[in-house]
Amino acid sequence: MKKYLILIFVFLNFVIFSQDNTGDSNNLTDDDYLNIDISNIIDNSKKEEKKENTKKTIEDAIDFNLSIEGRNLTEIRFLRNNLGNNNNVFGIPTFINRSYCDLQAGVNFGKIFQIYIDNSFRFSYDSNDIAHIKIAEHENKYYKYFEDIVKEAYLLWNIPIKYPIKILVGRSFFNPETSWVFLTANNLNYTRKTLGSFIDYDDIGVNMLKFSMYFPIVNFDLIYSPGSYQENNITKMFNIQTEQRFAAKVDFSFKKVNFNINGYIDTSTDSDGNPFPKWALGASISVNVTDELILYSDLALTSKERKLSLRKEDKKLYGNMNEYTIVENQKHIDFSGVLIGINYSPKAWFTVYGELYFNTNGLFPDEQKELFNNLEEVSYNYHNPEYPEFAPNANDIRIKIRKYYLDKVGGVAIKYDAFRLGAFYFFTQIRKENIASTGLDLSLSTFIHLFDGSSLIMPAIKYKFLKYFSVELISNLFLGYEKSLMGEMFYLGNIRLVLEAKF
């Protein structure tokens, strides 16, 4: 670890003393690349240009930009005793501290080529000994680890003809979705939006070859993303996902209406080498009703999505205790998406978001009831196993029974995700940024599962100061009764403090 810290220190010193960060950044955005005028490049190359224009051409020929983000995130989680994790038997971390140092660097060559890298160094410390109810089975666990993660690294070639062409090779993000919190028609973005802050600092881009063309009204992307079913050190090092996907996206832009059609085909194989084709087809549309009101939808049809269930078998393990099987049922086609979304900003006083989401792959009330009833029986059998007390190997039988049921509880706990298991949600947020020009941002979000009424409430406050610094306090509160999706979350809530500096 010392070697990494020394390298970071040397690099930061080189950056600080070799860069002038007082001026505005000249790093080209994606929109800059899409609007390059070829006539300007030709005119700038003419010998009769004025001296000041020649100087500007030299500056534009090679443009280097660097930004540094330092961040420290401290989170305390408050656990609840429930069916899936009674007394934190699985040792879920309740205290997390992560320090980040993210470096983003880009070099532009004459607005034609761009090399970009976003590298993240982070040191993490996790422990499970805070907010914990002590029991005999509990074991204090601490995790300390250092990571160097390449979030994005790509070469971009822009061909500034009348209708520009852009070719990207490397690791990047691909985000066609319109929704604020739900990933519906996302083709190649394998990451999730973090509901607490809507920013996931651990996101890693996807390896891809992307070809894009841009026209006045329509543009499209063609993408190939390689994959390897067999995981090994190489696939982990280069973040090669198991899926191999071919994707396409077509965007249409009009004066007040924008919509796209996108989809992918997954040509991966399963562990036995059999074809495992999977596909998705999505569409999103947004309409600027007024300057203050935007309405949108983001919908998708997907194939071979898996739904979690815990099935009771007729076969008995011992006495009256049934065997159980964790099943992930697979349907041929599923529908999901934001049926209607609202972005309302009255006179820029504040902003309101609202999204109604439906997912046929989620649990409906009868399926949800069956899952939790079976989980309740499994949990009871774990704590109160039947076994022959006077048998010579009674204790061995008892240990075997408890281990069997604990494995079933753990199998459900690992896969339990209230936001994916839910079938009908409503999300709303009201926020106000830079209140009275003080740098203070406030927001309050709610995330309601409409089938059982359980909710997640997320207040957040952020203060930006001295231009480069900010402090953010976020809290997630999970409200719900027993056997409701939010009520069976392992957490009562959490508090997260984020200190950030950007240069």
Beta content: over 45%
Given helix and strand content, the structural type is alpha+beta
Q: Strand tally, please?
A: 20
Helix content: 10-25%
State the shape. globular
The helix/strand order is HHHHEEEEEEEHEEEEEEEEHHHEEEEE
Rounded Rg = 26 Å
Largest sheet: 18 strands, antiparallel, barrel
State the separation between the terminal residues, measured CA to CA. 24 Å
Global mean pLDDT: 82
Unreliable segments (pLDDT under 50, ≥5 consecutive)? 1-52, 130-136
- Compute the number of helices: 8
List keywords for this structure.
46% strand, two-stranded antiparallel sheet, 503 residues, 18% helix, alpha+beta
Note down, in words, how this protein is organized:
Helix 6 packs antiparallel against helix 7. A hairpin with a 3-residue loop joins strand 6 and strand 7. With 503 residues, the chain is α+β, with helices and mostly antiparallel strands. 23% of the residues are buried. The chain has an 18-stranded antiparallel barrel. The chain has a two-stranded antiparallel sheet with strand order 12-13. It is built from eight helices and 20 strands.
